[in-house]
Amino acid sequence: MKARHVFTLLVATLSAAMLAGAFEYAGTAAFGFPFAVSGLVLVMALALLVADLRADRAAAAAGQAPDAPTPPPEQDRPVDWAGLARIYGFLAGFLVVAHFVSYLVAVPAFLFLFGVLFCNERKVPSAVLAASVGLAVFVIFDQFLPSF
Amino acid sequence: MYDAILPALGVIFSWPGIAFLIGGTLIGMVFGILPGLGGGQVLALLLPVTFALEPEYAIIMLIGAAGAVPTAGSVAGILLNTPGSAQNVATTFDGYPLARQGKAGYAIGAAATSSLLGALVGASVLIMILPLGRQIVLSFSYPEYFMITVMGLCLIALLGEGTMWKGVMSAGLGLMLAFVGADPIEGLVRYDLGTDYLYDGIKLVPVMIGLFAISEALSLLLDKKSVAGERIEFGMSGVWRGSLAVFRNFGTFLRGSILGTLIGIIPGVGGAVANLIAYGQAKATAKDKSSFGKGDIRGVIAPESANNAKDGGAFVPTLIFGIPGSLDMAILIGALMVFGITPGPRLMLDSPDIIMVLIGTLVFGNVLAGIIMLGWAPYLARVTALRSTTVAPVILVLGLLGSYATYGNFGDMIVALVFGLVGYFFQAYGFSRVALIIALVLGGLIEKNFYQSMLVFGIEGSLTRPITLGLLLATIAMLVYPALRASPGALLSRAARRSRSKESKDEG
Question: Which residues are CB-neighbours of B291 under 8 A, at least 6 positions away?
């Protein structure tokens, strides 16, 4: 099973959960739009999954691109899982620092560390970017906007 | 009422009126460019500042700021696929592909010009229909609201992003997300997973920032490319070409402006719907729609003219009935009441000068914002040449802070990150981010207006209302017209091919 199939399966699972959840409510809150829409998406997701798997199997058997109702597998954009995980690791760190310390620390720290460690930029340009964006964010969100 | 036009212009262009207009417009532009911040925030920020001013000058500053937001909101949408507000979502569909082709200046030129002229159309229509405004507003009720939202949802069929199957699935997901939170009829809280955060439903701004801004930043970082690659148009020539494109596509512009004004008149529908419907209408009525979604300038002109024109329309219920159709208008009504001006039927009789100052500021604030944007466009376009390792981390940070700034809720940053991932996988596997966002915008409105229509009018009562029926027919026409129009062309070209082959046979 490819990542694309797992994604479709996740969509089907989400809609199944919402369909099942609809039974917990009464009246229009459940048996109106939520019931109809989640049921429809569930059926569509399962149909897509079956069609996709069949097409892939047929393609593998024939040794050529499948004629599926979805873009053929080679048109799927390759997903850089390791890169995504690293970016989300940095972003999780950003959220933790912003929540428990201050976003005024989190913004320049994230930009500098991300620039040096993920983007392999030199330290001085990364520090300049981090300081200038940090200053702009301080002026806009701390001095200008009352919501922060 | 029209006698008050010249004195109002005198107030706007006198000192310090002009200074407040420039100040308000510049502040509004900053808020428009920053993702997640919009008219509501800028008005809330400026309201206490204006308490010390004369009412006319306070109105000039507030309207100048609020009017500039949608104009500037297109900039980040075009350059970085990060719409400044929900009013600019549709601008990204073709604006960002143009930026990727190195034509950011061209797109910004078209956006600024159509915004500027769209506001002029909106204000002109407002002046003309103010005396009739009461009848217009009263002729709209739940069935009409419902049909307008259905019309918006039908746009998904016209967008053509990915396959139709996956487009409908994406829209279904958007609707499912819209159902989270309190049920509009019975008040039951649905799918809240036991958390207070989901009590009010999933908020649009963090989802929009995640789907468009964060997912784009992820793509830029992982592909390690600049937005525009190597082919970038610098200088003013592209910007002027963009401005001229508005006049070359004047029909698209005019239809977008009129649609925007009409949607603005309806309370509670707003700019997010106006720009999407204008985009769908432009695509549906275009002769050649193959370039939409890939960088068609008409896809920038239509939504940008609509989202600025809608401000003119939104003043109709606000001024005539005191009904705020949006957060911006609610704050504006509050501001007017602070100064002892009560919006309502008496306002046009008692204070026509205030109404004219308000309309004049809307026009000249937008003109000013448009001119500033045109002047900045060549410099702004250079952002697309920066390396992804410089731009993408800044998008991530500003996107997350913008999603937090809207409601001051930390959970919004997490939602933005989750939808960043969703948007990335949607792109990777051919699902439609646009269909999801359209459905999320319209889902709550559709559900609420459907049940209220059924409760108040019933099926027959709803469908026999002339405006509802007209909107239903317009929706059907919007879906069927492209196919009908394509058929004669296809028949003709087939006939031409046949006759050519016959001729060649005869010659042979």
Answer: none
pLDDT in tens, B238-247: 888 989 999 9
Take residue B379 and report the two structure tokens written for it: 């410099």
Q: Which of B209, B429, B440 to mutate to test the interface with A (most CBs of A within 10 A)?
A: B429
**CB-CB: which of B37, B172, B222 is closest to A41?**
B172
- Residue B450 CA to residue B278 CA, distance in Å, equals 23
Cite the DSSP H helix spans in B51-88. 55-80
Nearest to residue B258, comparing CAs of B194, B323, B305? Answer: B305
Tell me the backbone φ, ψ of residue A44, rounded to 5 degrees.
-65, -40
Asked if residue B62 lies in contact with residue B47, where contact means CB atoms within 8 angstroms, the answer is yes
**Is pLDDT of A13 > 90?**
yes
Among the partner-chain residues A27, A34, A87, the one whose CB lies closest to the CB of B218 is A87
How far away is chain A from the Cα of B168, in angstroms, using its nearest Cα? 8
Q: What pLDDT is recorded for position B138?
A: 73
Q: Distance, in angstroms, between A51 CA and closest chain B CA?
A: 12
What is the ipTM metric for this complex?
Answer: 0.88
Q: CA B4 from chain center: how many Å?
A: 31
Residue from B405, B420, B395 nearest B207 by CA? B420
B49 CB neighbour count, 10 Å cutoff: 14
Give the pLDDT confidence score for residue B491 in this predicted structure.
46
Residue among B163, B428, B447 whose CB faces A70 most closely: B163
Q: Which DSSP string do the residues of A18-34 spell out, in sequence order?
A: HHHHHTTS-GGGTTTHH
Which residues, other chains included, contact B442 with Cβ-Cβ below 8 Å and sequence gap of 6+? B149, B152, B153, B178, B273
Pair of tokens at residue B444: 């709550």
- Candidates B210, B389, B168, B258; CA nearest to A119 is B389
Q: How far apart are CA B322 and CA B314, in angstroms?
A: 11
Query: Which residue, among B121, B103, B44, B64, has the nearest Cα to B380 in the 3D structure?
Result: B103
Q: Cis peptide before B55, with omega less than 30 degrees from 0? A: no
Give how far the C-alpha of residue B491 lies from the chain's centroid of Cα atoms, to the nearest Å. Answer: 37
| Residues of chain A neighbouring B183 (CB-CB closer than 8 A) | 25, 28-29
